[in-house]
User: What shape does this take?
Amino acid sequence: MRKAGGTAEAVVADAGSEKDVMAFIDKAVSAYGRLDAIWANAGISGGLVPIAEQTVEHWQEILRINLIGPFLAIKYAMPHMIKQKYGSIVCTASVAGLKSGRQRPSLCGEQGRRDQPGAGPPPIRCRAPGCGSTRYAPA
Assistant: This one.
């Protein structure tokens, strides 16, 4: 990528932490002067735990990262995109939202919500690829 003239910066952050999300978005805007796109791709499966054996705390942690994380990324990226009148928001979805999973009910439930992040104000584009049939995961 650098040979082609591009740049990248790694950031360690907790996607479900409002403070961390605000910090990495501010860091990107400070470093590059604008925010053209955000890809909300953090997520955890919660493991192979039958629903009757899961705790409320377990579900809350999955939802904190998988639902609140993308919400925070969109919430704090969108004002920059609105101000610059341009931007793209991508939330990776999962085929788990289309199929039930006896041992991963938390993943299946939250992924079904993630495929509908809502459109941003024009010309901000919002997409959630991955929630569909492929040769690896037929619907």
About this structure: The first strand starts at residue 37 and ends at 40. The chain is about 40% helix and 10% strand. Confidence is low (pLDDT under 50) at residues 102-119. Residues 56-84 form the longest helix (29 residues).
